[in-house]
Design brief:
mainly beta; six-stranded antiparallel barrel; 1 helix; 6 strands; globular
Length: 105
C-alpha cells in the first residue's frame, strides 16, 4: 500500500448489475479512504471485478468504482474499492479534509 489511508466512517449506497440483469442495491459503511480507493463493509457479497456506482449518504462522493478484493469477516464482507476516474478529484479533497482534521494522523 503506497498511499496514505485515513480512517473515515461514513454510510454509502452501492448499486451494481449481476448476470440476472436485475440491479442490486446495498448499504455499506466506509472504514478507510485513500486518494484512489476505499475500504467498505457491507452485508452482501459482491464479486471481485464488479463495477458499481457508489454514493455517500452525505453526497460528498458519487461515482463509479471497481471491487478489487472482498473478504468475509463474520457476517459482513469487507470490500477494497478502486475509484473510477470521475471520483479521483473528490476523493483527494475528502482525504485532505479528513487528514487535516484535529486528531487524525
Amino acid at each position: 500500500r503506497r498511499e496514505v489511508r485515513v480512517r473515515y466512517r461514513a454510510p454509502f449506497y452501492l448499486l451494481w448489475d449481476e448476470q440476472s440483469s436485475q440491479p442490486k442495491y446495498a448499504k455499506a459503511v466506509c472504514n478507510e479512504v485513500s486518494e484512489h480507493g476505499m475500504s467498505l463493509e457491507t452485508s452482501q457479497s459482491i464479486a471481485v471485478g464488479t463495477r458499481l456506482s457508489l454514493r455517500s449518504e452525505s453526497g460528498a462522493l458519487f461515482g463509479g468504482a471497481l471491487v478489487k478484493h472482498a473478504t468475509k469477516h463474520g457476517s459482513a464482507y469487507v470490500l477494497g474499492m478502486e475509484f473510477g476516474y470521475s471520483l479521483l478529484d473528490e476523493a483527494r479533497a475528502l482525504v485532505r479534509e479528513v487528514y487535516s482534521s484535529p486528531g487524525v494522523k
